[in-house]
Structure to design on (243 residues):
């Protein structure tokens, strides 16, 4: 265990927390890897691979609960998948984008908490807007090595396009698909090089996701899930500002 037991415990805890709200956890894994001085060339591929397993299990769990709506997903993924592939191929300093995203997440958290106790009333998706959001999220996600769920979730909730558990289901499959596209982009550039301990991290991610997604779907009320998602987004914004 090259990075020490604390590193692996944090990876497991991150998988539990993120999967409970339908996220893969890439922003959390990147923060942890930065803290433990993991080589930058290994970080993006490692985070995306973990996303595949954690978000995939989370999606399946929420799908079994009947919270997945294909019509809600499609406008967001039509352009996000090819744009994620393209973003992963580019080598751009993303610091400015990270600061902008961090500010957006803080605003989104405030909006979510303000509406936390209000009834979950949904409205129809604005298709052109959703297509544009999907394209942006895909490109940005591929570029910095995340799945895009930390942005999609608050968008769905702010515009009341989905309930909190529908949001978890949509975000999970969105993350899975974008992570797969991002990994394909890295592979096409010959830079698909995760950490040597990736199989151990995958095992921890799977275990964490099985626990977290079950808690999110069965044990947590919509209000508690909203507060947990807000906490996850706050952590993600902190990571974007400081790592």
């Amino acid at each position: 265990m090259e990075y020490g037991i604390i590193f692996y415990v944090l990876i497991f805890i991150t998988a539990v927390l993120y999967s409970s709200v339908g996220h893969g956890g890439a922003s959390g894994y990147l923060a942890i890897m930065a803290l433990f001085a993991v080589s930058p060339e290994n970080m993006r591929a490692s985070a995306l691979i973990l996303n595949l397993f954690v978000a995939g299990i989370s999606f399946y769990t929420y799908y079994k609960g009947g919270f997945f709506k294909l019509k809600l997903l499609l406008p967001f993924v039509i352009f996000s998948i090819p744009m994620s592939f393209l973003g992963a191929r580019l080598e751009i300093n993303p610091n400015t984008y990270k600061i902008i995203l961090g500010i957006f997440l803080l605003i989104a958290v405030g909006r979510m908490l303000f509406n936390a106790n209000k009834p979950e009333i949904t409205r129809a998706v604005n298709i052109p807007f959703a297509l544009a959001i999907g394209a942006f999220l895909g490109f940005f996600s591929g570029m910095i090595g995340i799945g895009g769920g930390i942005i999609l979730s608050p968008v769905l909730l702010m515009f009341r396009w989905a309930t909190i558990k529908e949001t978890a289901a949509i975000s999970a499959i969105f993350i899975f698909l974008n992570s797969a596209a991002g990994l394909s982009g890295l592979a096409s550039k010959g830079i698909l090089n995760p950490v040597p301990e990736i199989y151990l991290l995958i095992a921890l991610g799977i275990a964490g996701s099985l626990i977290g997604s079950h808690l999110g779907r069965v044990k947590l009320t919509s209000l508690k899930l909203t507060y947990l998602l807000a906490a996850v987004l706050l952590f993600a914004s902190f990571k974007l500002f400081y790592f």
